[in-house]
Amino acid sequence: TSCDFADVQVRPEEVREELTKEDLERSVDLYLTETETIWMLDMPSVVVSVESEEAGRILERNKIYADICKTRPGNDRFVEKMMQTINGPPKNKEVQCDQISMEDKGVTVTSWDLYDSFNVSEIKPTSKAEGARATTRKSSKPHPTTEHHPTTPVCSDTDSTTSPTRVLESAVHEEEERHSRAILTSENFQRDLFFMERILMENIFQPKLAAYRQFPVLTDPDVTSDTGTEAEQTEQGKEKKDKEEQEEAFITPSILSDLNKSLEEVLPPRLERLWSYTCDLTDGHGVSSMAWSKANPDLLAVGYGAFDFKEQKKGLACCWSLKNPMWPERIFRCEHSVTALDFSKASPNLLAVGMYNGSLAIYDVRSPNDAVLMDSGQSPNRHTGPVWQLRWVEEDGGATGEGKAERLICISADGRITLWFIQKRLDCTDLMKIKRTEREEKKLLGMKERKSEALISQQAAGMCFDFHPTDTNYFLAGTEEGYIHKCSCSSTEQFLETYRGHKGPVYKVAWNPFSTDMFLSCSADWSIILWHQDSQTPMLTLNSTTTVVHDIAWCPKSVFVFAAANESRVEIWDLGASILNPVISCPASPGEKFTSVLFATNTDCLLVGDSKGEVRVFEMQNLAALNSDKV
Amino acid sequence: AEVEETLKRIQAHKGVIATMVVNAEGIPIRTTLDNSTTVQYAGLLHQLTMKARSTVRDIDPQNDLTFLRIRSKKHEIMIAPDKEYLLIVVQNPCE
């Protein structure tokens, strides 16, 4: 049976009288009166006191009555008689009333309940707004759904009347859909998803992350670990077989023979692969550069570009966080391949990215979208060749006269080392650089250098540079011809020294962070050369492979240890142990070339980037040199 | 949108058995399990979340529950509760 709406009785909503402010201030008179006495029961007594006036009369009457009762039995004046009364027929009458429905309502009072009731003024407007939104959709029909607010006891008690008419049912579905869409797009949901992903990652990667932080890795006793933990447990060597499938490191024989002299329990140094930063997005791009954030040592920026520089793809710069090794926190898409990047120290949210077409972009990593903060596209002095390296360098004092200014310096293939600074810092639409002090690198092809000439015919392409760790006035620059020049910030035309030794382009130079007279350089001529800054001939030449060495980096903890990435292997050299062979050598899988290395600053780990877009994190284990003091 | 991508990524992660989003009435909005199991999970976990939230707020009414993790022998159930929905992910933590 279908019931019409008009028949349905709805308890009228209690209307609350709105009190205005004037009402509060108006003085109200309150009157107190007594009502009339209401008689509920009046029972006159049958007892009279002996001392009252009627007492005599009543006593006499009582006596007369007693006499009559005595004379009654034989007296003619009293006769017994019976009578019949007519009883009216009884009639039944029935009355029917609606069932009185009873409802039990109970509330468990909790302390948060009380708290919420006191703060109900904040919560009530939101529920009112939601109710209003829903009712405007269906003009005169009541709510098809009741709103649930489990945390607030002040719920709107509207009865839910679901009508069987089709119109309302479809409206119910629509409302639900809208509601679910609203849920899915709400900010809270996005935030919860974000946290959930990170927690999932923590679950998956927990042993690896513990190894990264150099905590002892604990295994879950309930969980049957088939692949097992990565770091070695000193108590049981239970999952040794699983390490083989994960490992790519093996030990060179020379080191083994050295270590055999020591205790047999000491394990040879090796690289333990913890995890790698990779995802679908970065697949196929080669890693060209990596940099740690200066403020947060767990935040890594990786620049991706086509490694084979004949085919240029769109580049990518991603910021990876330790908390999520499977998806980057920030993705910045660039027009051209990224060839260099660096985080700023003074403003740690700025990331400078250099690209293959010579342009420079500065991103703000705080914003989740990949809009460029500043771009060098319109600058008239921009580079015309790929920016091979850039760095934010702190200058002590210097030309500006203020304290420690930080400047952005890049070197590029058009032969210029340029200094950029940002005048309009907060303006993101304008040009990035305004003034640039040029340090012209002028070099003749292979001839002995001539002193400061006004016009030099050609400029050699610069590939890399490194500032002296303690005195930022000096820096080294490596060129495509194989020369390394020591230059000074004060003289823009002359080199202080030239170091000749490489026969191919120098890809990287690096000062030793501890022993600041030495520096290392690597080149496409398959060799790594160790120099002393006072001598123009190499001190030590290290040849270990027949492939191009792309990157080198000194270990920040030890004076002798450095890492080198050549195309087929990652090597860790310990000059204190051996100068002929690397201590650890880790081969790449076929098809992959290692292109960059980076040491972690707060832990004994090494990051290696390769041409397939993967950044592997290795933990260096059992490297004795890491514990020794600097010489 | 990005929400869809993140949801898909979570679903595709190693060890994730199920991902569910249910609204406050227990009706699934997004789920990777069949309906009956989802409704069962939703009902039970809703009650548990209520109890947990009540506990947290009883101790300090200004506090509120943000996340709930239940680790059992076989899996780990992670719940992100909200006033309007429940985000539930069941993961098998062993690799």
UniProtKB/TrEMBL annotation, chain A:
Cited Gene3D superfamilies: YVTN repeat-like/Quinoprotein amine dehydrogenase (2.130.10.10)
Keywords: Cell projection, Cilium, Cytoplasm, Cytoskeleton, Flagellum, Repeat, WD repeat
Residue ranges of the region described as Disordered: 125-180, 219-248
Gene Ontology molecular function: dynein heavy chain binding; dynein light chain binding
Matches recorded under SUPFAM superfamilies: WD40 repeat-like (SSF50978)
Pfam families per record: WD40 (PF00400)
Localization of this protein: Cytoplasm, Cytoskeleton, Flagellum axoneme; Dynein axonemal particle
WD repeats: 499-541, 542-575
Source superkingdom: Eukaryota
Segments passing through the bilayer: none
Name listed for the protein in its UniProt record: Dynein axonemal intermediate chain 4
Organism: Thinocorus orbignyianus
TrEMBL record, chain B:
UniProt-listed SUPFAM superfamilies: Roadblock/LC7 domain (SSF103196)
Keyword tRNA-binding: no
UniProt cross-references to Gene3D superfamilies, sorted A to Z: Dynein light chain 2a, cytoplasmic
Domain Roadblock/LAMTOR2, chain residue ranges per copy: 3-91
Pfam families referenced in this protein's UniProt entry, alphabetically: Robl_LC7 (PF03259)
InterPro entries listed in its UniProt record: DYNLRB1/2 (IPR016561), Roadblock/LAMTOR2_dom (IPR004942)
Main location as per UniProt: cytoplasm
Localization, UniProt: Cytoplasm, Cytoskeleton
GO biological processes: microtubule-based movement
A cellular-component GO term for this protein: microtubule
Origin superkingdom: Eukaryota
Record keywords, A-Z: Cytoplasm, Cytoskeleton, Dynein, Microtubule, Motor protein, Transport
Keyword Amino-acid biosynthesis: no
Family: Belongs to the GAMAD family.
Function recorded in the entry: Acts as one of several non-catalytic accessory components of the cytoplasmic dynein 1 complex that are thought to be involved in linking dynein to cargos and to adapter proteins that regulate dynein function. Cytoplasmic dynein 1 acts as a motor for the intracellular retrograde motility of vesicles and organelles along microtubules.
Protein name (database record): DLRB2 protein
Gene giving rise to this polypeptide: Dynlrb2
